[in-house]
Amino acid sequence: MGHAYMIILVMLCQTLVYREVTALFSLKNATPESGEIEHKKDPWSKTLNWYFFAVTNYFLYGESIIYYFKVSSNHSHYRSILS
Prior knowledge:
Elements: H1 2-25, E1 29-30, E2 37-38, H2 45-82
Antiparallel strand pairs: 1-2
């Protein structure tokens, strides 16, 4: 079960880092002298960022993760039959 925990840990770290990086780009631009905040109206920006993240991870890791869990579930099934 150690490999599954490492896969989850890596995905969690990637998600947290991606969240921080996208938060840097979504900061409001403020000028210190005037105190005005420039509001940019783009409601789909965050949604598209997370969609891109999910699709990229699926295409990079999806098949190998599915294959790993399929193989590991088959091995545990054979172990239960033999014991």
